[in-house]
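Hey team,

Filing this mostly as a record. A colleague (T.K.) asked me to run one chain through the structure pipeline before their review meeting, and I want the input and output archived in the tracker in case anyone asks later how it was produced. No errors, nothing strange. Just documentation.

Input sequence:
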Amino acid sequence: MARETTYLELSQDGGGAHKFYEVTVDGTAVSVRYGRIGADGQMQNSSFPTAEKARAAAAKKIGEKVRKGYAPAVRGQRAARSVTRRQVTSAPSTARAVAPVLWRFRTGSSAFGIHVDEDRCWVGNQAGDVYTLSHGGEVLARYSLPEGVKCLVADEFWIYAGCDDGTVYDLSSKVPFGAYDIAADVDIYWLDIHEGVLNVSDAGGGLTVIDHEDEFQWSRKSGGIGAWMVRADEAAVYHGHSGGVTAYASDGTRELWHTPTNGSVLFGWQEEHAVYAGTGRKVVQRLSKATGAIEASYGCDAAVYSCATSPDGRYVFAGDSSSSVYCFDADGRRLWKLGTGGGSALSMQYLDERLYLVTTDGSLVCVDASEAAITAAQRGSVPVAVDVKSAAALPVFTPAASAASVATVSVAAAPAGAVVVECVQQGGRMRVQVVSGDYEPSWNVQFPRGIREVGARYVVDGLHAASGGFYRVRGEIRRLV
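Output structure:
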C-alpha cells in the first residue's frame, strides 16, 4: 500500500500559534512529526496490527488537529518564527584565584536556563536539553525539548521552560506539555511567571503579558531594545532593556517609573523590595521597587552577564564576560572576585552558601560560596572539582505529541483522594472546572489546552489554589471514561 502523508499547519496572524503537524501512514506504521513551522520538530512512531487500524489511528489524529484549527498546507511556504540566539563572548578569567568549584556538569551546549530549589537543580541548554540534578551533583532526569531553552522559571511548585520555538513547556507533570504559546512575531529574550501570569520580554524591547488561560492580556513597548530582563511580583512587572528599567502596574494600566541605567541591561534579579540590573558597562545596580531610585552600585571589571543575591540582598553576586564571579556586600563593597575555571556565567542562583552557575561552555557549576571556602580559595587552595557524568540509563522525558498523549492513562473511576475536573463551554471559550466537592465551583483550572473537549472529565492527583482565583494541577492527568 502506498505511503500517505498529511501535512497541516496552524498559524494565526498576530496570535501565538505557528505550528505544523504531519502524519505519515506506511503500511501498519504511523509516524507523527510536529513542532514550530520552520523547525525539524519532534518525531513519534507507532505500529498497529493491521493497515486498516493504522489508517484509522492516523485519521483520528488528523481529525483532532483539524477541529483545533489546523488546515492542509504546503511545507516551506510559511517562514519560521524569528529567533535570536544570544551572541556572547567569553574571555579567560583575569582573576588571581580559581573559585572553589565543588562539581561541574557539562550539558554539551551553551546554557542559559537555571533554577535551584530545595529539592534539585535544573539546567537547560541551547540544544533543548533540560537536566535535573541533586545538590550533590547526581543527574536525576533529562527532558528533551524541540528547541533551545531560553530560560527556566519557577512559580511555586511548577517549573516552566521557555524555548526558541515560542512554546513555554510545563515540566511539572509526568508528561511535559506546552502550557503557553507566544505570538510568532515575538522574538523571546526572557520570561518570568508569577501566579500563573506569564511575562515575556523580547528582542525589540517589548513586553507581553499572558494569563493562566494562555490568553493575551496586555503589551507595552519600551524606549529601548534587547529586553533581557523581566521580573514580576504581585504589584508590578520590571522590564530591563537598552534604555534602563521600566516598571509597569501588574494590570498594565500605567507606567509606574522608568530609570536609565549605566549601560544596557543584560540580566535582572529581584528581591522583595528591590530589583537588580546587570549591565554592559561593568556594573550591577540596585533599584527600589517602590520608586525606581538607584540605591547601590556594584562595580565589576567587565560586562555583567548575570547576577543574583542571597536572601534579602545581604550579598550580591555577579558573573562577567571574562569568566569571573564577584561577591559584594549590600552597600556595594567588593568582597571577592574569583575565576570560574570555565566559561562565563550566563545565569546564576544562590542557595544555602552555594552559588550555581550556567555558562557559555554549557556547564552547570556548583561553587562553594561559604566564607571558609572563599578564604581558602583566595589563598590558592581549592577543592578538586568533581566532573559529573550522566547515567546511561537516565530517563528522558519528551513533550506530548498530541492531545491524547498528555493524559496517558484512562481510568473508569476516580481513586480515593483524587479530584475530578470537567471541560465546559463558557461564552465561546473552553474552560475547566472542578466537579469534586470542597472547591470553589466558580474558579477555573489551569489545564492543557490540547485536551479540552466539551463534557470530557479528567482525574488529577490534586489542585492548588492560586491567589489569582484559579486552580493549578498537581501530579498526573488521567482521563475519566
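Quick notes for T.K.: The mean pLDDT is 88. The helical segments are 51-67, 371-378, 403-406.
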